[in-house]
Design brief:
13 helices, elongated, alpha/beta
Length: about 375
């Protein structure tokens, strides 16, 4: 009888039962779909702006001997980049740069310098306005201190030169972070509580009385979580795209690449859940253990704003976190039109995290 037992059929039966139980769990639906959708709706209704980076480039033909340049170069909120003309054009079109600043010497006493900004439609208008305010404040400050007898040291062209580019909305930044948060929460909390309860209620022990192998038990339960969470990913992306015009550059192809990336990330995050379920002594210890993995990533992985806004000493820690690399890869695929091969570094780091996490999970996971 054992030889004729269909392990795959038994695994799928476990998957079906576990999936039904997940859909009947209000907390699972709330954390996986409810909370992320609330954030998406809030930020989606706030407006269509949303660039977070204040990266700028100084035009190579600019006069860099003037005091305006030196003050701007020392402002921490402006991160000056050094790039080739092709890279600058590409970054402007994809919203990676806020603007190119051109400072030209005019040889006029009324205004010795003229400042022109070059940006694109992919950059948030709020960011451009903020940059102009910063420059105007610098010019005003220099006028008062060093040039009291001059009307102004520099004039700023109010008409920003713009090149074509995709319109960058708040949702294009927020949705990847919320999808990552949903995958992380479900992978850690969902798996941790699931397998802990299966042990406590002796369900796993009852499975031992059947011919099904242990590996198929794990696969069956895991598959149900994967199916449920990928369904929530479809809902989140669908609402973001239909209701708030979340960018999918290549349409359905981009969607499929995002789903493949989500599948990989979910597998990695579930490894943390296996570790927590093995370490927890009772249900009350699961949330503290799980929050050790989820809370730092939720706060530091670029969920709500770019990690460039963090202090320099903290950014290396942010760049280690697996959720950071998922968020970066998804934003590159969805808005910039990258494919899975283009984000191979992020995928490699996620894979390394997966190997490490499951190596620990094997050591800590308990069947009884």
């Amino acid at each position: 009888m054992t030889g004729n037992y269909n392990q795959v059929k038994a695994m799928l039966a476990i998957t079906k039962g576990s999936l039904k139980a997940t859909f009947r769990s209000p907390s699972a639906v709330l954390f996986s779909i409810g909370f992320p959708l609330i954030f998406i709706l809030v930020f989606g209704f706030i407006g269509n702006g949303g660039g977070y980076s204040m990266k700028v480039v100084m035009d190579k033909n600019s006069d860099t001997t003037n005091p305006v340049y030196h003050v701007l170069n020392n402002i921490s909120s402006l991160k000056f980049q050094s790039k080739s003309d092709e890279e600058i054009k590409e970054d402007l079109e994809k919203g990676r740069l806020t603007a190119v600043i051109f400072i030209e010497k005019t040889n006029q006493q009324i205004a010795p310098y003229h400042i022109q900004l070059k940006s694109s439609e992919a950059v948030s208008p709020q960011n451009i306005a903020m940059l102009k305010q910063i420059i105007e404040s610098v010019v005003s400050s220099i006028n008062k201190k060093a040039f009291p007898n001059t009307p102004t040291i520099a004039t700023i062209n109010n008409d920003v030169v713009k090149i074509p580019g995709r319109i960058y909305r708040t949702i294009d930044f927020i949705l990847p972070g919320q999808l990552g948060f949903s995958l992380l929460s479900a992978g850690v909390f969902g798996v941790a509580f699931l397998f802990f309860n299966l042990r406590q209620q002796l369900v796993l022990k009852r499975f031992y009385a059947t011919p099904i192998r242990r590996s198929y038990i794990i696969l069956g339960e895991t598959l149900s979580r994967v199916i449920f969470q990928l369904m929530t990913a479809i809902i989140i992306i669908g609402i973001g795209n239909v209701a708030f015009h979340f960018t999918l550059v290549h349409g359905f192809v981009t969607f499929l690449e995002i789903m493949a990336l989500s599948f990989l990330a979910l597998l990695v995050f579930m490894g943390f859940g296996f570790i927590v379920s093995g370490l927890a002594k009772n249900e009350n210890t699961i949330p503290p253990f799980a929050n050790l993995f989820t809370l730092p990533q939720f706060l530091l992985a670029g969920t709500f704003f770019s990690i460039d806004n963090f202090p320099t000493w903290l950014q290396p820690l942010c760049k280690i976190l697996p959720l950071t690399h998922f968020n970066n890869a998804m934003r590159s695929i969805a808005f910039e039109g990258a494919n899975l091969i283009d984000v191979w570094k992020e995928i490699l780091i996620l894979a390394v995290w997966g190997i490490v996490v499951y190596a620990v999970a094997v050591k800590t996971f308990k069947w009884e």
